[in-house]
Specification:
The chain is mainly beta and about 850 residues long. The chain has a single domain (about 5-340, about 385-855), classed as TonB-dependent receptor, beta-barrel domain (Maltoporin, Chain A, Beta Barrel), CATH 2.40.170.20. The protein has 11 helices and 39 strands. A hairpin with a 2-residue loop joins strand 5 and strand 6. The longest helix has 22 residues, at about 5-25. The protein is globular and about 85 Å long. Keywords: Cell outer membrane, Ion transport, Iron, Iron transport, Membrane, Receptor, Signal, TonB box, Transmembrane, Transmembrane beta strand, Transport.
Length: about 850
């Protein structure tokens, strides 16, 4: 097990900071300009950024506007040890804070709070940053104050409050790829005691990529987002204020835009084709699907917050309601397993859509599939060529079927909090929290008959897109929690804070899948001449799939000690615990995987594979424990700010998303890594170098290790998924007067993200479904055909964003560019070990445009 000497690292950090201070002092003349003081609410009360004993990155309204931050990925890239993946569909983001990454199909790993309201829907994070005043990113477990799911940290967003006087702003923008944006804000008093604010944003883009099958440039990574938000602030009297927020958004975008890369060394030898064991970073992307991936979302948000001053105590009460309706429709993945190989539509498509050479009677469509069997080979239909080809996923043929998903959630939550006078030597916070959440999750797979698609979970065999595999569950969650914090001034320079929270979470799941047979169109659903059920769990529960329930509880303490070493230097240490409740995979997950991948002795395909998976229909709670030592300082007459921290984190039952592809289609599941250790260091700085120039930057280092993983024992000793060893960022802002009332403003941001694994397996050989196909005597030779993911690590990458503009008293004109060097890198790699390959998604390419805004 790797270890890190925190004392030695802390000493090195101190020396490095002193060296940086000395160097900057030597080369920079003295000016009367100071760094802007920032007030944060990390501990649910206003405090100076430099005094709060938490590693916090705060981004002000001015920084948001100067950098052109419009969506969460824009600010994530400006801080060390924080990364984001945004690929499968709008809102399906995975944020990694200090190496702990949020998990698809599970709860988030960080608390997301908007204007003091905890957002319980994970999709709520990836929204437009509309009318935002400040963003705070808290690193390390924050469960004591922010509760369930704050195992890696918290992200707090404060929007602009209604104004005391009438004001407004309009902004329009245009960019490449037919990008168009428009925002509008109007605010002011409605009566002497009532103020309001109304905002709107529109964003649309065709995206960077083209569907080469249809020729459409707006079918891949396109996006259209329309968002409305309103806010009323009512001063009922001198002691009571009511804050009502409402929001509505409609989003339509691309989805499931992946290609596949094999990691099968045995196929290279068997077929003399190196493409079967390729580096994911060297892939040339082709999007050629006949079912364009689409994602539609409709979100409604309501909240009411009351702030009441009761003597020396502030009382805060919050009620919030959120509702999300979402579906995804896209091509499927199962063509390589021949499920729909002999359907009428597949046979018709293969006649004209194949990459067999013309000399062999083929259509030679290398534009869709690449060179013949390099690695994909699609053949025209005949008795000799059926069940012989090697298909990629998401093809222009009907041979891969389709997939349909729903992610609907309705929740109601509330918090009651009491806060003492913050000027007292003993300060305290106490509160109660509750949430009621209902989430419907659908994953359906079926036949593409060429007759269109009904957007619903189940389609009977007579419908245009009959269902052959269906997971459809309703998850109900009830949360109750109590929390409190005490802050003691042990002396004029030392503060001790003790916080504790108790969470109790009841989770229930019921199955909505009808007890019917598959359509019979997919040959892989036919066993011994009989068509199987559309959910394998019915094989074990012929009279109906039973409901399930479980309860998860956790104490989440936090202790911090802060010392004001000098007027400008603060040092702190902390210990904290975070908790993410356990949960349920869709019913039938274990039965499906056992049949295809695990040995049972019943003659099932899993007997030949024997993957020894331990994936079940439920998973355990996750508990994170972290120690942190940090220092915050301001130097050079308040023109230089340096903050740094070292930390060590242990995670029990880290929830990890696994993707499975096979003859059944696709399957998403949450597993757990039994024990994970992460340690690291991070530092950021801001300096007002001259009257016209400001510099900022940071770097982070992570050292992670999978200590125990009973589901994938071969992965023990590997790095944590999505935990790059290094992240750096550096930027500069120039502000120069060019005439009376007009300034030239420029900002440049550079980011480096180190190479990154996306799976626990990082080169260790494990069995694949091809071991089963090797026993059938067809085109696949006898096994073993183990996967090797040593070439599935994403390479390091660097991006540069820039923005240049003129600012007047009431207007701003800017030109901007993102990824201006057009760096090509992978946004995500999803390894599917039992498939023997990875599904990969490209990053956004270079984007540029012009914005104009006017304030009144």
């Amino acid at each position: 097990m790797r270890t890190i000497d925190l004392k030695r690292l802390a000493k090195g950090v101190a020396c490095a900071n002193l060296g940086l201070v000395a160097a900057l002092t030597a080369v920079t003349p003295s000016y009367a300009i100071e760094i802007e003081e920032i007030v944060v609410t990390a501990r649910k009360r206003p405090e100076s950024l430099q005094e709060v004993p938490i590693a916090v990155t705060a981004i002000t309204e001015r920084q948001i506007e100067r950098a052109g931050m419009e969506r969460p990925a824009d600010f994530i890239g400006t801080m060390p040890n924080v990364t984001i993946v945004d690929s499968a569909n709008v809102g399906d983001t995975q944020v990694s804070i200090r190496g702990i990454v949020s998990t698809r199909d599970a709860e988030s790993t960080f608390a997301y709070v908007v204007d003091g309201v905890l957002i319980t829907n994970p999709n709520g994070f990836n929204e437009e940053l509309l009318d935002v005043a400040q963003i705070e990113v808290l690193k390390g477990p924050q469960g004591a104050l922010y509760g369930r799911n704050a195992v890696s940290g918290a992200i707090l967003v404060t929007t602009k409050a209604p104004a005391d006087e009438f004001e407004g702003k309009v902004k329009v923008g245009f960019g490449n790829n037919n990008t168009q944006t428009a925002t509008g804000v109007i605010s002011g008093p409605l009566t002497d005691a009532l103020k309001g604010r109304l905002s709107f944003s529109h964003r649309s883009t065709d995206g960077h990529y083209t569907n080469v099958f249809t020729g459409a440039d707006d079918e891949v990574d396109f996006l259209e987002d329309n968002t409305f938000r309103g806010r009323l602030l009512w001063d009922v009297n001198d002691d009571l204020t009511l804050d009502l927020r409402a929001g509505y958004s409609e989003v339509e975008g691309g989805a499931i835009n992946f290609n596949a890369v094999f990691g099968l060394p045995s196929f290279v030898a068997a077929f003399d084709q190196p493409a079967y064991f390729a580096d994911v970073n060297d892939h040339d992307f082709t999007f050629a699907f006949n079912v364009p991936g689409g994602n539609e979302q409709e979100t409604t948000e309501l909240s009411l917050k009351a702030d009441w001053t009761l003597g020396d105590i502030d009382v805060t009460a919050v009620l919030a309601y959120n509702n999300l309706e979402e579906f995804l429709l896209s091509d499927g993945t199962s063509a390589s397993f021949y499920g729909y190989e002999v359907t009428d539509q597949c046979l018709a498509d293969r006649t004209t859509l194949n990459n067999a050479p013309a000399a062999l009677g083929g259509s030679d469509r290398t534009d869709l599939f690449g060179d013949f069997f390099a690695p994909f080979g699609v053949l025209p239909p005949s008795p000799d060529t059926n069940f012989v080809g090697v298909y990629g996923p998401y093809t222009p043929t009907a041979c891969d079927g389709y997939q349909y998903q729903e992610r609907n959630q309705e929740d109601f939550s509330g918090e009651l909090r009491f806060t003492s006078d913050q000027t007292a030597s003993l300060r305290w916070i106490a509160g109660l929290y509750f949430a009621e959440i209902e989430r419907d999750v659908v994953v359906a797979y079926g036949a593409d008959t060429g007759r269109g698609f009904l957007r619903q979970p189940y389609v009977d065999p007579t419908g245009p897109n009959p269902t052959d595999l269906l997971f459809d569950d309703t998850f109900e969650t009830s949360v109750i929690a109590g929390f409190g914090q005490l802050e003691f001034d042990l002396s004029d320079t030392v503060e001790l804070a003790l916080a504790l929270r108790y969470d109790r979470e009841e989770r229930d799941v019921s199955n909505n899948v009808p007890n019917v047979r598959a359509s019979g169109l997919n040959v892989n659903t036919i066993v011994e001449g009989e068509v199987g059920p559309i959910n394998p769990a019915f094989s074990l529960n012929p009279d109906g799939i039973p409901d399930r329930s479980d309860t998860f509880t956790q104490l989440q303490p936090k202790i911090s000690l802060a010392w004001s070493a000098t007027d400008n230097v603060n040092i702190y240490g902390s210990y904290g615990v975070g908790f993410r409740s356990g949960g349920f995979n869709s019913i039938g997950t274990q039965a499906t995987l056992d049949f295809w991948f695990n040995a049972s002795g019943d003659g099932n395909p899993g007997d030949a594979v024997d993957a020894q998976l331990r994936v079940t229909d439920e998973y355990d709670k996750e508990v994170t424990t972290s120690f942190e030592l940090g220092a915050k300082g301001q130097f050079m007459d308040q023109r230089l700010r340096i903050n740094a921290a070292v930390f060590q984190t242990e995670v029990e039952d880290n929830q990890f998303f696994e993707f499975f592809a096979g003859p059944f289609g696709l399957l998403r599941a949450v597993t757990t890594i039994d024990e994970l250790e992460i340690r690291g260091f991070e530092m950021d700085f801001n300096i007002v170098a001259t009257e016209y120039l400001s510099l900022f930057g940071g770097f982070g280092i992570l050292d992670s290790e999978i200590v125990e993983n009973r589901n994938r024992p071969a992965s023990e000793g590997n790095n944590a998924p999505q935990a790059p060893k290094e992240t750096y960022n550096l930027g500069a802002v120039v502000e120069i007067p060019v005439s009376d009332g007009i300034d030239f403003v420029a900002r440049v941001d550079w980011q480096h993200v180190g190479d990154m694994w996306f799976h626990t397996l990082q080169g260790e050989a494990t069995p694949t479904i091809w071991d089963f196909f090797g026993t059938l005597g067809g085109g696949v030779p006898p096994g073993p055909h183990s996967q090797d993911f040593s070439r599935a690590k994403r390479d390091a990458y660097q991006t540069v964003n820039a923005r240049f503009g003129l600012e007047g008293e009431a207007w701003t004109l800017s030109v901007w560019g993102r990824n201006i060097t057009d760096e090509e890198y992978l946004e995500e790699v999803i390894p599917a070990p039992e498939f023997g390959g990875s599904f990969i998604h490209p990053s956004a390419r270079d984007a540029y445009g012009i914005d104009f805004s006017y304030r009144f």
